[in-house]
Amino acid sequence: MSDKDSKIAPRVNHKNRKYTDVPCAILFLAAIGLFFGIGFAFVGSKNVDLLETLSTFEYKMNDALREDAEACCAELDQDGRDLIIEHSCMALQKNPSMFGGLLGIKAIYCLQAFCFVTFVSNSAEVMEVAKQSGVTTTDWDTGNTVMGATTCVLQNASWVGSARSILMFCWLWSIMFYAQARLGVIASVIGSWHFHPEDMPTMLSAVSNVFTKSLGTVSFSALLLAIIERIKKSLKFRWYHHCGPQFAVTVPFHCLAIVILWCLETCMKMLTKFTLILHIFTGDNFFGSAKKCWGLLTRHFENAFVTEVTSRAVLTLGAYVFSIALSFSAWAWIDTEFGWHSLSTASDEGGSLIRFFGWFFMMLFNLWYPTLGIFFMIMIDMILTRWGVGGQEYWVAPFAAIFVGVIAMLFFTYMAGVILDTIDVCFVCWAVDKDNNVDLSESEFNALVMELPDVKREPNLSPNTGLNSSLLTIDQMAQQQASAPPIAQGYPVQMENKV
C-alpha cells in the first residue's frame, strides 16, 4: 500500500462515492420486505375480533420497541457539558436546511411504526381452533371411569409466535437504521460545513448518499446495534430464573455478565457511531472506517472511551419535563373548553384524588416509554370505542393530554438525538483537525474539549506510524489553504497553554 493510498484529506467525500457493504444492503432490504410480508400475512389471516378474545390472549411486548439505543460522545463536567451542548446547537443553527432531510427520515420511521403497531395488533387476532380433551375421572368405589367432554378452544395460530419474533427483530433493526441514517445526514452536512463550507452538499444529496451508496454501511452498523440490544434483552435479570439453592452461584455470575455486557455495549456503540461518521467523511467501507476510527480515538482520547452519560441525561430529562408540562397544559385547556373539572382534586367526590393520581402515574409511564405508550393508548381507545364507556368528562381530557405528551416526548427525544449526534460529529472533526495540525488556538470548542478528563493534549503517535497507519493527514494542496474554521464560531479564547 502506498503512502498516498493510506492517507486522506480532512474533508467530506460527498461526491464520487462508491457503493459500500453491498451484501448488507441487500440483506437489509430483504429484512424490510420480510417485515411487510409477515405484517400483511397477519392482516390477511385475521379471523377473530381482538376485543372478544382479550381474556385468552397473553401479549408480551418486546423491549425492542424502546427507541432508547443511542450513545454519543463526551463525558462532560457540569460547566463544560452545557457549553458543548450550546456549541452543537450553534452548528445546527448554521445549517437549518438539514432539518428537512431529518424530518423526512422521521416521517418514514413514523409510517413504519404505524404499520408495526397495526401488524402486531392484527397478529393477536390470528387464531385457530384447537381440540381440548376433557379430564378423565375414576370412581374407585364403583370402578366407573367418566370421560370428560372434548371441547374446542381458540388459540394463537402455531406460526404466529415465530413470525412475530422475526417481525420484532426486523423492526428493531429498522429503528437502529433510522437513528444511524440521521447520524449519517448530520455528519455529511456538519462535517462539510466545518472542513469546506464553500463546497457543501445539498440536503437532498446528503440524504440520497445515506440511502443509496452508504446504505450497506449504515445498515451494517444498525445491525450491530440491534444485535447488542437483543443480547442485552436476553440477559435482563429475572428473579424467577434464580429460585432454588443454586442462586448463590447463578446470581453473582449473572451480575458479572451484566457488567461485562454494559462495558462491551458502551464500547461497541461508541465505536459504531464514530465509525459511521468516518465512513461518511471518507467513503470507505465499514471495517476500513473502523480501523481509522480506532486509531483516531486512541490518539486523542484516553483508552478510546468517550461517553455521553451527562449530556444525554440532561437532554432526556429536559424532554421528559417539557412533555409533562405540555400534557398538563393540554389537560387544563380541554377542561376549560368543555367545562369539565377532571384536573381538579377539590371535588366533593372521594375518588377525585385517586383518579387524578391514577392518570398522573399513567402519564409518567407513557411519556417515559412513548412508543409503548402509543400502543397501550390504541388498545384502550379500541376498548372504549367498542363498549361506549360513559363519563367522558372524567377520562377524555386526561387521555387526550397523555396523547399530546407522548407526541411531544417523541419529538423532543428526536431533537435531543440530533443534538447528541451533532456533538459526535464535532468531536470527530476536532480530532481530524488535531491529526492535521490545524491551528485551533482561537476555537472555543477546542478550549472546551481540552478541559475534558479523557482528552490527550498531544496525539499519541507511535514510532511505528508509517505507510499502514490510519493517521489522517492533510495533502499538499490542503496545506496551502487557510486553516479550517472552528466547529463553533465565537470569540477568541485565551489559553495559557496553547496546544
Automatic annotation (TrEMBL):
It is a multi-pass membrane protein. Keywords: Membrane, Transmembrane, Transmembrane helix. It comes from the Eukaryota. GO terms for cellular component: plasma membrane. GO terms for molecular function: transmembrane transporter activity. The chain crosses the membrane at residues 21-43, 98-121, 166-190, 210-228, 313-334, 354-384, 396-420. It is found in: Cell membrane; Membrane. The keyword Membrane applies. The keyword Metal-binding does not apply. Its main location: membrane. InterPro entries: Choline_transptr-like. Belongs to the CTL (choline transporter-like) family. PANTHER family: CHOLINE TRANSPORTER-LIKE (SLC FAMILY 44) (PTHR12385), CHOLINE TRANSPORTER-LIKE PROTEIN (PTHR12385:SF98). Choline transporter. This is Choline transporter-like protein. It comes from Triparma retinervis.
